[in-house]
Amino acid sequence: MSNSSRRQSYWWYVPIVIALVLGYAAGGFLSFGVMFCNGIDKLVNPTARLVLILFGMGLLGSTMYCTKWWASDVEEAMKDKSLLPHLFDAFGYMTTIIGGGITGVVLYLAVKAGVMLAVTSTKPDEPRLAFALVIAFCGGLFHFKVRDMLSGVLSKLITEHKEEAASKAPGEDSS
Question: What pTM did the predictor assign?
Fold first, then answer.
């Protein structure tokens, strides 16, 4: 029995299932419980309540995504024992669910900023700040893709500049 196969087990599905159940419970409470049942009644600030509701809806969405992911993961593991989960799989499910809550709130900010920019110009500073926050979040989320894209743009600019310089006749004025 190899060292890696001892670390993998069907038992690692238990914390994954617990993470899924907690994702549904927390998401359901934060979204529907806060919205319709006045959950957390001490929280009276409408913006704070909205953020919790949005966070809960994001949790529900990402938990549904993870449930589908889990179902296909179990099916694959039944066919190939080398695909059984390990400790880090449960951690991955938990971080994906929490990240979905955060993304739900940020996506709302993006849509709100876009609508406000398209509809009104009475408060130009507020949507610009919200839009800047979304751009910063997306930059962090897609860090490697953004880096690769910027690197490609810079490489193309440098190549075009070199080709332009090489195409000029020697002694030709560069101004």
Answer: 0.68
